[in-house]
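About this split. The held-out portion is used to measure sequence recovery: a designer receives only the C-alpha cells and must propose an amino acid at every position. Recovery is the fraction of positions where the proposal matches the reference. Here is one held-out target exactly as it appears in the evaluation file.
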C-alpha cells in the first residue's frame, strides 16, 4: 500500500518564530509526535489568486530536511514556478520583508506627492520622468494603503523591536494619507453648509471587491467627524449595507465627489449625467479624464498636484 503522510502547512503571514514557539507546541500538546511541518507563505493577489498560486515561485520553510522534501513534493504537484527551501523562521521573515518592501515604496511615493503639492509640482509627471532612469521604479501615490497584508504585516516586524525605524515611518506616512485626503475635502467644501460628499470606491484597490482595511472607511470617519454626510458607491462590492446601489442615488445632491478606488468602471462615468448639487471632484488616483470633468463645470483637485 502507498505510504500516507500527514502534513501541517502554515501559509498565513505570522511574526518570525510563531511556528516554533506557538504552532508546534500546540501540535505536541495534542499528542502529535512525528510532525511534517513547513511554513509556506502564500503569494497571491486578489483577482488572480488561482493563477498566482500555480505560477508564482514558492518558499518552503521546513521544520527539518525531511519535512522540506515532503512538502516540496506536494507543492510540485501544482506549482509551476520555482520552489526554494529554507528554514521555518526565515520563511516567516521573508514574507514580512516582501510586504514591508511594498509598504515602504508606497510610502515614498506618497511622500513625494505631499512634497509636490507644497512645491506646486505635478508628481505624476515627475514620477513618470524619474522612472525613465533604468534603475528607478517609483510606485504611484494614493489615499492610503489597504488590504489584509501590506497595511498590517510590517508591524509584525516593528512591534517587538526598536530597530524598525524605516518600517515604522512608512506606516505613519501611509496611515496619514486618509487624513490628508480629509484636508483636501475640507478645502473643497469649506463654503458649503452641511456638506454631503460621495466617495467612489469601497475596495482597497482597483477592480476587486475586497474592502479589508480600505482607506475609504478612514476617510469616511474623518469626514463624518467634521459634520459631513457621507455617501458610498462601489459597483463591485456586494452586501455592504451603506453602499448605494446606483451612481445616481449616490451622487444626487452631493457637494463633492471623491474617487478613492481606481476601478476601471469609474473611468466611464459621464460627468454631464451626474446630479451633483455642487460640482467638486477630488481624484486621489489620477485615473479620470480631468479635462472632460472641467468642461462639465467641475472644480477638480488631484492628489499630488500643487
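Reference sequence for scoring:
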Amino acid at each position: 500500500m502507498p505510504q500516507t503522510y500527514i502534513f501541517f502547512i502554515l501559509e498565513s503571514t505570522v511574526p518570525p518564530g510563531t511556528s516554533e514557539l506557538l504552532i508546534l507546541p500546540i501540535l505536541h500538546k495534542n499528542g502529535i509526535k512525528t510532525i511534517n511541518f513547513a511554513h509556506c507563505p502564500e503569494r497571491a493577489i486578489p483577482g488572480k489568486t488561482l493563477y498566482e498560486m500555480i505560477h508564482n515561485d514558492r518558499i518552503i520553510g521546513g521544520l527539518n530536511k525531511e519535512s522540506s522534501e515532503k512538502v516540496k513534493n506536494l507543492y510540485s504537484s501544482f506549482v509551476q514556478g520555482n520552489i526554494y527551501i529554507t528554514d521555518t523562521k526565515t520563511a516567516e521573515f521573508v514574507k514580512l520583508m516582501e510586504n514591508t518592501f511594498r509598504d515602504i515604496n508606497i510610502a515614498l511615493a506618497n511622500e513625494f506627492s505631499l512634497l509636490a503639492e507644497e512645491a506646486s509640482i505635478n508628481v505624476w509627471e515627475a514620477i513618470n520622468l524619474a522612472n525613465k532612469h533604468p534603475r528607478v521604479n517609483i510606485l504611484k501615490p494614493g489615499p492610503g494603503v489597504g488590504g489584509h497584508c501590506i497595511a498590517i504585516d510590517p508591524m509584525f516586524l516593528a512591534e517587538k523591536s526598536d530597530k524598525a525605524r524605516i518600517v515604522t515611518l512608512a506606516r505613519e506616512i501611509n496611515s496619514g494619507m486618509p487624513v490628508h485626503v480629509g484636508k483636501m475635502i475640507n478645502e473643497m467644501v469649506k463654503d458649503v453648509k452641511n456638506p454631503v460628499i460621495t466617495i467612489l470606491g469601497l475596495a482597497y484597490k482597483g477592480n476587486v471587491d475586497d474592502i479589508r482595511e480600505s482607506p475609504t472607511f478612514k476617510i469616511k470617519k474623518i469626514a463624518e467627524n467634521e459634520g459631513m454626510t457621507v455617501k458610498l458607491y462601489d459597483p463591485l462590492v456586494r452586501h455592504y449595507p451603506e453602499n448605494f446601489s446606483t451612481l445616481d442615488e449616490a451622487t444626487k445632491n452631493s457637494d463633492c465627489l471623491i474617487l478613492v478606488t481606481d476601478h476601471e468602471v469609474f473611468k466611464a462615468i459621464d460627468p454631464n449625467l451626474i446630479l451633483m448639487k455642487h460640482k467638486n471632484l477630488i481624484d486621489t488616483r489620477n485615473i479620470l479624464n480631468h479635462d472632460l470633468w472641467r468642461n462639465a463645470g467641475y472644480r477638480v483637485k488631484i492628489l499630488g498636484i500643487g
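Annotator remark: The mean pLDDT is 94.
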